[in-house]
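One example copied in:
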Amino acid sequence: PAYQRVLAKKPDDAWLRYNYATALAVNGKTAEAGQELAKVPVDDPQLAAQVAQLYGKLKDFQGCVAALDKAIGKNKSAELLVHRGICKHSLGDDKAALADLEAAVATDSSNAAAHYYLGKHLGAQGKKVDAETHLKKAVELGKDTPIAAAAEKALAELKAPPAAKKK
């Protein structure tokens, strides 16, 4: 109710509306959260990334892609392309996901997350050499970050013999 009162006075406050959608989602009101999330303008790239993550938590990958299409149209960035690639992968559109992840690396070749997710995607497609290249780059660029640690783990899994992977 407090959010509703404040939003009545500040209907154009995008972060406030996003926080309201988050509160609804946390309280299990996923349909209402999605409705509020759809009202959040995605002009701010940081907010767009947060909106995409919340759509992902709501398992509304179509909404995620739609919001990111708008955001990328206004401000193309590696981070937003990575988020959209993840949402497209979750929809089962691996060809489009790959295109977004490749575009993310092309947009910012110093983005560790872009290399990590592209490496993971390529590894899942059985393209081990290309996957290894991107995962190593993620480790290098993301030194001492969670992305680097995740990339190191993915590299180890990629290099593990098939019998070891099943354990």
Observations:
- The chain has a mean pLDDT of 93.
